[in-house]
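Exercise 3.2. Students should predict the tertiary structure of the chain below and write it as structure tokens, then compare their answer with the key that follows.

Predict this chain's 3D structure.
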Amino acid sequence: MPRSLGNSSFVEVAFPTHSGPVRGMAEILTPMRTATDGVLQPFRFVALEDDHHRRLRTSLDHVMDRNLLGLKSVVPSLPRTI
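Answer key:
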């Protein structure tokens, strides 16, 4: 994100996965780190429909299975900042 959002803000989050789009309401948490092109800010879902929850779970399982097999994750590495 280009700038951080206030803690405890509620937002709608949507992103594509290999299982289909995932969309739900989320609470913004404290920013983790500032990157050169924005802020990495975690969130937690507070409302997620069953179909979107299933897609998210399937996608996470897929990434974990790939990692356990020693395959490189489909998520690109983010640069580290000090």
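Discussion points: The longest strand covers residues 22-28. Residues 50-68 form the longest helix (19 residues).
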